[in-house]
Amino acid sequence: MLRTLVEDIILTPVDGKIEIDVRGDLAGILTLSVKKQNPAAGATG
């Protein structure tokens, strides 16, 4: 599922370190993150 939300991952060397830029559906990624941290948040009842 996560693979469908991430379009590109760009790795760039900066001052001896690697900078990671993830591009894609930010809202979808954040929604997955919230559901994983608090599975009951999306439940109705």
Structure description:
- It is a single chain.
- The protein has helices spanning 2-5, 26-37; strands spanning 6-14, 17-24.
- It has a two-stranded antiparallel sheet.
- It starts with a helix and ends in an 8-residue tail after the last helix.
- With 45 residues, the chain is an alpha+beta fold.
- The longest helix has 12 residues, at 26-37.
- The radius of gyration is 15 Å and the shape is elongated.
List keywords for this structure.
2 helices; two-stranded antiparallel sheet; 45 residues; 38% strand; alpha+beta; 36% helix
Task: Please provide a brief summary of the model.
This protein is 36% helix and 38% strand.
Q: What's the SSE blueprint?
A:
Layout: H1 2-5, E1 6-14, E2 17-24, H2 26-37
Antiparallel strand pairs: 1-2
- CA distance, first residue to last residue: 26 Å
Adjacency order of strands in the biggest sheet? 1-2
Shape: elongated
Radius of gyration using CA atoms only: 15 Å
Oligomeric organization of the protein chains = single chain
Class based on secondary structure composition and strand pairing: alpha+beta
Please provide the ordered H/E string of secondary-structure elements: HEEH
**How many distinct beta strands?**
2
Question: How many H/I helical runs?
Answer: 2
What is the helix fraction of residues, given as a range? Answer: 25-40%
Beta strand %: 35-45%
Overall pLDDT score: 81
User: Ranges with pLDDT <50 over ≥5 residues?
Assistant: none
Tell me about the biggest sheet? 2 strands, antiparallel
